[in-house]
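hiii, so i know i said id send this last week but things got crazy w the move. better late than never?? heres the sequnce for the chain we talked about at the cafe, plus the structure i predicted for it. fair warning i was half asleep when i ran it
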Amino acid sequence: MQNFNQTPLNYAVDYARELANAYPYLSYFSEIWAGPNSQKYKPVNGKTVMIPSMTTSGARVVNRDSIDGTFNRNFNNEYQPVTMEMDREWDTLVDPMDIQESNQVVTIANITKTFNEFEKVPEMDVYVASHLANFAQTFGTADATVLDKDNILSTWDGYLAYMVNQRINRDRLVAYMTPDIYKLLKEAAGITRFIDAGTGIRNVDRNVGKLDGVVIKEVPSDMMKTIYDFTNGWNVDTSAKQINLLLVDPMAIIAPIVYETSMISAPTAQTKGKWLYYERYYYDVFALNKRRCGVLANISEPVLGTLNVTSVAGTANETVLSVDVKPFLGQKLVYQLNSADPSVTYGQDLSSWKDLPANGTVTVDSQTNATVALINTTKGAFAVAAGNATIVKGS
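okay and structure toks below
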């Protein structure tokens, strides 16, 4: 997108009343916005949304011969607090003479229709896409496999196998992909073609609407980036990476729209005789901590996250390491002591590293540097983020 500049209005006498905006944007992520979770959770304290979750113990063998009369609480309840961020507004003045002289083209209805189709809806969609990619990267389900027509089906099978192994019903999954990746899918040798000759016309349907029960949706490439600037409208950040594919369980996501209003004021002296239109909407997108494995992304270059690691002196020859993140379900923290900061890459196998104790206390010999990494345990010891600190140990 480019910065908006005012241009002279078109006052053509015979100009059509209906707008002819080519290829208006629609929501590509309707399953997310209209998902079952998005209506359940609303802010309870200012901008904070509290997402409840629960765990229980397993069942046990029945003892038919006795009862001890002791019953325990066998469930735990906890809340995931998240903060709403996308509080947006838009307004415009409309001069009555512009409405008259443009043959009713410049009307509030047409202006707002254009805003919604070309700005508001795509802004919300790119926000979803970038955040889904971030959820995948920070959990460890972002993959950098370079897809082509020969490997796309085997790679796809691997993605589905991972999802099913995480007990995600594949019938709930939706795959969002760029047109280039969709093209590879159509070119893959294992895709079945359907020919309908019943009407006497040999119709060949090459669409791939579903693959292995998963709904396939094409999303334009410019709306599948990892980072956007939302200062004024939506603009692709210069450091953004290309998202090639998103495989998502809508049950793993909440996308609350907690406030959406529009209003119009008739011409007054304060507006110098002009109509005034104002719109405000407040939304965000979050991943459920216990369902983070329900978002998988293929990104051209996934980015290793950064951990802020601190080291403080413990008892003799010990240091206490702490980080600024709390592992999600399916993650854990590991560490390594060195004389220098080791190079860690996204997805690196860190199975040789040691588990960081809950209290962060580790014994130090002659090492001077401590590196802590966050790994995804559902994929082995898949590196997601890392950080290091100069060791401060007790004497």
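btw The chain has a mean pLDDT of 86. thought thatd interest u
miss u guys!!
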